[in-house]
C-alpha cells in the first residue's frame, strides 16, 4: 500500500513535470515561472525516487493501540489525508530513535523492517517492557545495528536512518543556533551524523536553507566523493560539498607544496602579512613623481603623494575601491601645481587663476592618460592573484611584509610566478580579496546599462499590453485595473533581472562573497587558522556544525583545542557535544589504537566498541616490501571478499609500495598516481592524509615508524591509520616493532 501511494505520487509529479516541459511560448516572465516549476518537480521526483529503497523501515506500536510507520519520506493517505508513513525527521517519528525500555515514551514495541526490492525480508522486534529495562544495553535496535556495522563496505558511505542511536539523534536534531562542535573518537559516526543533521535542518528550516544553501566542507575530494551519496539517498540534493581549496571561484588549487610551506601559510599571522603586502603596494616616491601629461610634465611632490595616500587609507575602503579617492587627489594636486605655475602674478599679487579656471584645469586632467598612469603607479588596481604572485616572487617584498618570519620560513614562501595555486593559497587569496575589494565601477556601469535596456524593453511590453486592451472594457468600466496600473516598467524590468533559476548551491559555488545558511565542517581539526577566517566569512550568522577529533589532527597547521579555534569568532556561542560509541572498529582493533591514543594523550578516552569479531589484528616484520607485500595484499583481498582493502603507507614509501600492490591487485587505485583515489575498487593504496575519514573492511598498515617519523604530528597520523578498518587490521614493519604496537602478536590472521 505504501509503495502504491509512492507510485501514484511519482506518476502525478512526472505528469506535472512533462506538462511544464511541453509548454512553450509566452513571456519571459512565464518562461522563468515554468523553469522554476520544472526545477521544483524535478526535486520532488528525486525525493520520491530516493525513497524507493527501504521506503519504510520501522514501526512503533504504542500502548494505547496507535501504530506509526517510519520511513524515508512522509506519505499521506490520498483520501482522508491521514499520515500513512512518517518522515524519519518528523517530531512524531522521534520515539523510534529515543524510546528505551527504561523510558518507553508510551511505546510498547519498536519494529525494524528490512525491505529488498519491495519485499519485506526481515523483521526485528524490541519489546520495551520492564524485563527489557533490566537488561538495557545502551543501543537501540541492536540486531539491525549490528547487521549495519558489520556489513561489507562498498567504497561509498551509506545513510543510517534505520539505526540512528539516541546520542546521535540528539545531535542530529539539536536546535542550537550557534556553533555546535561534535567531538568524538574515530568511528563514532561524526561524519554520518553531520550529514543526517544537514538533512534534518533542511527539513525543519527549508525556507531559509533552500535560499541561502548549506555548505559541507571536507578535507579532500576523495573524502567528498566517499560521502557524496548520503544526502541524495535521503532525497536532499541542493547542498554544496567542497574542500577549502575549492572555495575560491574561478580557480582550481591543485599545485603541491612542502607541508612546511602550507603550515606557514595557514598561520593566523598571515592575515597581517597579506595586509602589509597590500599596504606595500600603496607607493610613495622617494622624492617626486613626474607626471607626463598631454602638454607638459608636472611633478607630484612626495608630500602631495603622502597626503593622497593618507586620505585614501583613512577612507577605510578596500584598496581597489579607494582608487577614485587617489584619482581625485592626484587631479587636485596637479591642478593646484599648474595653477600656481601659470597663475602666478609677476607683480606679487594674488594668483590670477580663479576657482573656475582651476576647475577647468581639473576637467582637462580627468581625461589625461598621464593622470591614470600616475594613479596606477601610486595605487595600482590589484587582483588577489596579482598581489600574491608578486609577493611570492620577490624576496624583498616577502621580507617587508613578513618581518616576523625567520629567513628559512620566508625562503619557503618564495616561488616563481605561474604554475597554479595550492590549497593553502586559497585562504590567502580570499583574505586579499577582502582587503582589495573589487573596483566595481566598470561592473556597475555595465549593470546600469543593462537595467536601462530592461526598462526600455519593459516599457515596450507595457505599451503593447496597453494597446491590446479591450476597448469595450475601457468604455464600460472606468476603474478596471490595467496592466500598467499594476506594474510599472521599473518593476517589470526588476522581475527579469531576478530571473536566476540556479539553485542556491550553484549560485554559491560561483560567488566568493556568498554567505551560507548553515555550514558543516568535517575533519574540522585539520583546518588552519587562515582557513577558519575564510569559512567564518562565509557564515556570518555562525550557524555551524563542526565535527572532528583533536586526537586525529594531522595537519601541522591544524587545531589542538576547540576553544582556541572558536573563541575569536563565536565567543561563548558554541557548544560541545560528544559521541562515545565506536561503530567502526571491532574491540580487537580498537584496543590496539587505544595504546597509541594513551601515548598521544593519556587524558583522552577511547570510544567504546559496539561489537567484537574474534579476529585478532596481526603484525609481520618484512624488510623487503617488493617481496613480501603482494602475498599479504592477496590474502587480505581474499578475506575481504566483496569488501574493500586499503594499504596505508608513509608518503615516502608510496613509490616503493605501488608495484608491490599493483602486482597483487592490478586494478588497484593508487593515491598520488590517480587524479582521485577510486574507493570503489577492491584495493586502494593510500597515504594517511588520503585515508582520513575513510573506512575499509581490511587495512594493511605499512611502516608505522615511518608514519610517525614523517610529520610533527606523526603519532596522530598513526592513530588515524589504525582506526580505518571495520573487520581486519594487519601491520607490516620493516624494522623492530614500535613499542606502542607491542600488543600485536607476530602472526598472520587466518
Ligand atoms: N547508528 C549507526 N548505525 C549504523 N552505522 C553507523 C551508525 N553510526 C555510525 N555508523 C557507521 O560507522 C562508521 C563510522 O562512521 P563515521 O565515518 O561517521 O565516523 P567518524 O566519527 O566520522 O570517524 P572518523 O573520525 O574516523 O572519520 C560508518 O560506516 C557509519 O556508517
TrEMBL record:
Positions of ATP binding: 184-191
Domain of life: Bacteria
GO cellular component, one term: cytosol
Organism expressing this protein natively: Thermocatellispora tengchongensis
SUPFAM superfamilies: P-loop containing nucleoside triphosphate hydrolases (SSF52540)
GO MF annotation list: 3'-5' DNA helicase activity; ATP binding; DNA binding; hydrolase activity
A Pfam family the protein falls into: UvrD_C_2
Domain (UvrD-like helicase ATP-binding): residue spans on this chain: 163-586
GO biological-process terms attached to the record: recombinational repair
UniProt keywords, alphabetically: ATP-binding, Helicase, Hydrolase, Nucleotide-binding
Name under which the protein is recorded: DNA helicase IV
Amino acid at each position: 500500500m505504501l509503495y502504491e501511494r509512492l507510485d501514484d505520487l511519482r506518476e502525478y509529479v512526472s505528469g506535472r513535470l512533462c506538462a511544464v516541459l511541453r509548454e512553450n511560448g509566452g513571456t519571459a516572465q512565464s518562461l522563468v515561472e515554468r523553469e522554476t516549476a520544472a526545477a521544483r518537480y524535478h526535486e520532488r521526483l528525486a525525493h520520491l525516487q530516493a525513497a524507493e529503497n527501504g521506503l519504510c523501515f520501522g514501526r512503533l506500536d504504542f500502548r494505547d493501540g496507535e501504530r506509526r510507520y517510519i520511513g524515508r519520506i512522509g506519505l499521506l493517505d490520498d483520501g482522508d489525508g491521514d499520515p500513512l508513513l512518517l518522515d524519519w525527521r518528523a517530531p512524531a517519528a522521534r520515539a523510534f530513535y529515543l524510546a528505551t525500555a527504561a523510558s518507553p515514551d508510551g511505546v510498547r514495541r519498536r519494529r525494524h523492517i528490512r525491505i529488498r526490492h519491495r519485499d519485506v525480508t526481515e523483521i526485528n522486534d524490541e519489546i520495551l517492557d520492564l524485563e527489557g529495562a533490566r537488561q538495557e544495553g545502551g543501543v537501540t535496535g541492536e540486531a539491525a545495528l549490528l547487521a549495519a556495522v558489520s556489513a561489507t563496505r562498498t567504497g561509498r558511505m551509506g545513510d543510517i536512518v534505520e539505526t540512528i542511536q539516541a546520542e546521535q539523534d540528539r545531535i542530529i536534531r539539536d536546535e542550537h543556533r550557534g556553533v555546535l562542535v561534535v567531538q568524538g573518537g574515530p568511528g563514532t559516526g561524526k561524519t554520518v551524523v553531520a550529514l543526517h543533521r544537514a538533512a534534518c535542518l533542511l527539513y525543519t528550516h527549508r525556507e531559509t536553507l533552500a535560499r541561502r544553501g548549506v555548505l559541507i566542507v571536507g578535507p579532500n575530494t576523495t573524502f567528498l566523493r566517499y560521502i557524496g551519496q548520503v544526502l541524495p539517498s535521503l532525497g536532499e540534493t541542493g547542498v554544496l560539498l567542497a574542500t577549502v581549496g575549492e572555495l575560491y571561484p574561478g580557480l582550481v588549487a591543485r599545485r603541491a607544496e612542502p607541508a612546511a610551506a602550507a603550515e606557514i601559510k595557514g598561520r593566523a599571522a598571515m592575515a597581517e602579512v597579506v595586509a602589509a603586502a597590500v599596504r606595500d603596494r600603496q607607493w610613495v616616491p622617494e622624492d617626486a613623481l613626474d607626471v607626463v601629461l598631454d602638454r607638459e610634465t608636472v611633478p607630484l611632490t612626495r608630500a602631495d603623494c603622502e597626503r593622497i595616500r593618507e586620505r585614501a587609507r583613512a577612507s577605510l575602503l578596500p584598496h581597489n575601491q579607494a582608487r577614485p579617492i587617489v584619482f581625485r587627489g592626484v587631479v587636485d594636486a596637479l591642478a593646484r601645481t599648474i595653477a600656481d605655475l601659470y597663475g602666478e602674478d609677476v607683480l606679487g599679487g594674488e594668483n590670477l587663476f580663479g576657482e573656475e579656471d582651476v576647475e577647468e584645469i581639473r576637467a582637462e586632467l580627468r581625461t589625461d592618460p598621464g593622470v591614470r598612469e600616475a594613479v596606477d603607479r601610486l595605487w595600482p588596481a590589484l587582483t588577489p592573484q596579482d598581489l600574491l604572485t608578486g609577493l611570492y616572487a620577490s624576496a624583498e617584498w616577502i621580507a617587508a611584509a613578513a618581518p616576523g618570519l625567520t629567513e628559512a620560513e620566508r625562503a619557503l614562501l618564495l616561488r616563481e610566478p605561474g604554475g597554479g595555486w595550492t590549497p593553502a593559497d586559497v585562504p590567502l587569496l580570499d583574505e586579499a580579496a577582502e582587503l582589495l575589494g573589487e573596483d566595481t565601477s566598470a561592473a556597475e556601469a555595465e549593470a546600469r546599462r543593462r537595467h536601462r535596456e530592461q526598462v526600455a524593453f519593459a516599457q515596450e511590453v507595457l505599451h503593447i499590453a496597453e494597446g491590446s486592451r479591450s476597448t469595450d472594457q475601457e468604455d464600460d468600466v472606468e476603474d478596471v485595473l490595467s496592466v500598467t496600473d499594476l506594474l510599472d516598467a521599473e518593476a517589470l524590468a526588476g522581475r527579469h533581472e531576478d530571473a536566476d533559476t540556479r539553485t542556491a548551491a550553484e549560485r554559491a559555488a560561483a560567488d566568493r562573497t556568498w554567505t551560507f545558511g548553515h555550514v558543516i565542517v568535517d575533519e574540522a581539526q585539520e583546518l588552519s587558522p587562515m582557513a577558519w577566517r575564510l569559512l567564518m566569512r562565509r557564515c556570518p550568522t555562525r550557524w555551524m556544525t563542526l565535527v572532528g577529533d583533536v586526537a586525529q589532527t594531522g595537519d601541522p597547521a591544524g587545531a589542538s583545542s576547540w576553544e582556541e579555534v572558536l573563541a575569536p569568532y563565536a565567543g561563548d556561542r558554541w557548544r560541545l557535544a560528544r559521541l562515545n560509541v565506536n561503530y567502526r572498529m571491532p574491540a580487537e582493533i580498537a584496543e590496539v589504537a587505544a595504546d597509541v591514543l594513551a601515548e598521544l594523550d593519556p587524558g583522552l578516552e577511547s570510544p567504546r566498541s559496539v561489537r567484537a569479531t574474534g579476529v585478532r589484528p596481526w603484525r609481520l616484520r618484512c624488510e623487503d616490501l617488493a617481496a613480501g607485500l603482494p602475498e599479504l595484499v592477496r590474502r587480505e583481498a581474499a578475506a575481504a571478499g566483496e569488501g574493500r582493502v586499503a594499504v596505508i603507507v608513509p608518503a615516502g614509501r608510496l613509490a616503493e609500495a605501488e608495484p608491490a600492490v599493483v602486482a597483487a591487485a592490478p586494478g588497484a587505485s593508487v593515491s598520488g598516481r590517480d587524479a582521485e583515489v577510486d574507493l570503489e575498487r577492491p584495493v586502494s593504496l593510500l597515504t594517511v592524509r588520503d585515508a582520513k575519514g575513510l573506512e575499509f573492511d581490511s587495512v594493511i598498515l605499512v611502516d608505522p615508524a615511518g608514519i610517525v617519523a614523517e610529520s610533527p604530528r606523526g603519532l596522530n597520523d598513526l592513530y588515524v591509520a589504525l582506526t580505518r578498518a571495520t573487520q581486519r587490521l594487519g601491520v607490516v614493519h620493516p624494522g623492530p616493532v614500535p613499542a606502542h604496537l607491542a600488543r600485536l602478536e607476530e602472526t598472520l590472521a587466518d
